[in-house]
Amino acid sequence: MRYKRLVMIVGVLVLAALVVWRVQLHFAGIAVEVAVAEKAPLFAPLSTDGVVEAIEVRLAPEAGGTLTELFVDEGDAVSVGEILGRVTDQKAAARVAEARGAFDAAVAQVKVASAEVDLQRGQSAAQIDASRATVGMEHAQLDKARHGPREQEIARAEATVRAAQAEVRATEAGVEAARIALQEMQESSAARIRMAEGELAGAEAQLDKAHAGARPQEIEQARAAKDAAAAESHNLKLQYDRAKRLHTQGAMSKSDLDNAEAAMLAARAQEKAAAEALDLVVEGVRKEDLATAQARVKSARSRVEEAKAAERLVEVQRKELEAARAQLEYSKAVLVESRQYADMLREGTREEDLRTQEQRLAMAQAQQRAALASRSTVTAAVQRLNATIAEQKRAAAALDAARSHLSDTIVTSPVDGVVVRKLTEAGEIVGPQVPILLLVNNSDVWVIAEVDDEDISRVRVGQAMQVLCEAYPDRTFEGEVVRIGEAAMSKGVGRVKAKIVRVKIQVADAAPLLKPGMAVDIEADAKLKASTLLVAADAVIEEATEQYVYVVREGRAHKTVVETGFSNYTQTEITSGLSEGDVVVVSGKDELHDGARVSVKQAPESPNTQLEATR
Q1: pTM above 0.90, yes or no
Q2: 357 falls within a domain
Q3: Residue 134 lies in a domain
Q4: What total number of domains does the chain contain?
């Protein structure tokens, strides 16, 4: 009985304590922690990975052939324009020699055509001037015939006769000089052709020897040919020295001296060719010797063509001789007419003389029209000159192309950098499609990051990034976004095809620590909103149908429905339902209900501006 009474007393006491606690709770309020809703920037962490990249060059020669020299090794630093290797192309040198021969021949043709234009212009101008002078003279003679002569006119006519006689003598001297010049040019041109043909014969003989190889008796024959050529060269040298002395003394013409010199030069060429042929026979033929012999044959043929092209100058000189002879005939005709005119003046004008003078004037006018028409020959000569100039330009372009191809056999560095790898060795066959070196410019490196397409809105040009590398765990490299890709690309992750955007990040002070190909991690704080209404993320309560917070006003908690936006796990954006400065409950929400009295204290380490206790 006593036990039951004790239990009842304890129960009453507990009940009384509970009532007292509830009463105190009602009047004192539920203890909560709060924070203020405020406007501020909203940041969120961004993390991805990337790869270090740099300028890489797979260097290949422009020309194909054998890589004969490679001057660098892996790890060597190189600079722009530095020669790194050399490729041997035996055909390139032969093509240059052939192109040079064609160019020299074209130059000779241009000289011939230019000389022809000058000749035609000179002849046409001379004919026009002469015909105009003749017409003027015939007009004057006709006027004189009609009005009768005077003593001073007769004196002038006689002086004209004397001047015409002097002109005939001077023209005859010019014809003789042109004839001698033509003869000397013919002989000199023939000598040059013989010399060039002799050189070509020697070059072809060397090429034949190189193709055929040598036997003992051939070596002896080559040695005998060399000795004979040397003897002939020595003999012709003595003859040339003798001819030179005779020419100096006036006992030998210039053409004979030129012939002696041409014979001596041809003998020297034959001697040189015989010596080279002997060397080829003794040493045996090599690939480069064969190529050289072939190039020499082509060059010798070009010189033969050039010498034959120069022979056209003989034709120009022959036309000059013909022009001088025509001028002589014209001067003689002028002399005859001058004499007739002087005789006419002395005898007086007769009717038949007047008709004759009128006929002469008509003939002179016809000659003037013919002289004016001769301008068409000048035009044709100019057209031929333009054609030869165009051919010279084409030959020059071909020579430049051949030289350029020859220069392509030298391999130079296009960048400043380091040799990362040798892809070939000297002695291997290479070409434009066969790289020989891998070069990297380590002084300028960057990172290509792969950012998920859903995060790309959080990346902007100029944004700071932190680059981390496992090779340097205690170091962070500062980077800056310099380019954002224009397209999202697929990236396979298991069965899911994710979309990523490539972002270029320039890294300061990364060289030479970060190497191209290294994998790195990228971290950054991305700004989601420049300014928005934020509350602590713990203040938002989510239920199935709504989201709400408890707003503290006048010591009581009021349930307030809100709409949220972005969240960074510590802060949540409020898009509607709250105003800046509202006080929301952060901790102690579980015991709250709408209208409950609360005892407010400041939330520790709040991301927002700290709030003093609100009553």
Answers
A1: no
A2: yes
A3: yes
A4: 1
